[in-house]
Design a protein that fits this description.
single chain, mainly alpha, 6 helices, 89% helix, elongated
């Protein structure tokens, strides 16, 4: 009888513990469902891409600041001389290596988008 008295007094705690255990198990099962797992991977990939984009933007902030300052100075001044930073940018843009790199990056970007659409289409059909 002492055991039953103990259980009845602690009934609320036992029910809460059982509910927590069941909730944990159901959460675990849902977390590992294939559809949820696939969505989680896609979301993680998106976050990694956004983080990489943010890192790239922040690493180029100093360069953009210098060029912006020079362009602003050039526009506001009466000088006819183009700042050195703009001349360097024009040289880079006119170079054959830069054009080839832009072409390869554009091609890789287009191929990636096409492959992504093809992969998504095959996932939907299966």
């Amino acid at each position: 009888m002492a055991v039953l008295d103990f259980c009845w007094r602690r009934r609320r705690w036992l029910l809460l513990l059982a509910a927590a255990g069941i909730s944990g198990y159901v959460g675990y099962r849902i977390y590992h469902l294939p559809s949820v797992s696939m969505s989680r991977e896609k979301l993680a990939t998106l976050f990694r891409a956004l983080i990489s984009l943010a890192e790239a933007a922040s690493s180029n902030a100093d360069t953009i600041n210098v060029v912006s300052t020079d362009v602003n100075w050039f526009i506001r001044s009466d000088s006819e001389e183009i700042p050195a930073t703009l001349r360097q940018i024009f040289r880079i843009v006119r170079s054959e290596e830069f054009r080839g790199s832009v072409s390869r990056v554009s091609e890789a970007f287009a191929v990636g988008i096409i492959q992504g659409f093809k992969a998504e289409r095959t996932e939907r059909s299966t």
